[in-house]
Recover the amino acids of this structure.
């Protein structure tokens, strides 16, 4: 939500409140998402429901191991942290990533 500019703080706060009421767990990625996680905790989520990561790849691997049927999750991160990597890790059919996810072209998939 960094892309929202001057509206980012207000929109983060609005979303934090909804997350604390509706989500079972949250996994956030990136420095700017730390405030989002803190807001979810302040809104009533327990520490064991809030996971914070610096890298999308690690978040995806750990989320894959964590997921249980029926879980409701929010994957939170600015587009700059490449959260599609998390989604690809947990997809039931990751071979379809190129069809349904952004930034799946060869140039984006090269190691950075």
């Amino acid at each position: 939500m960094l892309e929202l500019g001057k509206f980012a703080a207000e929109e983060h706060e609005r979303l934090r409140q909804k997350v604390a009421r509706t989500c079972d767990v949250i996994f956030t990625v990136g420095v700017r998402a730390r405030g989002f996680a803190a807001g979810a905790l302040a809104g009533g989520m327990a520490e064991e429901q809030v996971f914070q990561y610096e890298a999308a790849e690690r978040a995806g691997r750990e989320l894959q191991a964590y997921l249980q049927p029926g879980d409701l999750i929010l994957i939170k991160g600015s587009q700059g942290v490449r959260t599609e990597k998390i989604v690809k890790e947990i997809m039931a059919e990751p071979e379809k990533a190129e069809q349904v996810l952004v930034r799946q072209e060869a140039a984006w998939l090269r190691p950075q």
Remarks:
- The mean pLDDT is 84.
- Residues 2-109 form a domain with the Cobalt-precorrin-4 Transmethylase; domain 1 fold (CATH 3.40.1010.20).
- The helical segments are 8-22, 34-42, 56-66, 84-90, 97-100, 106-109.
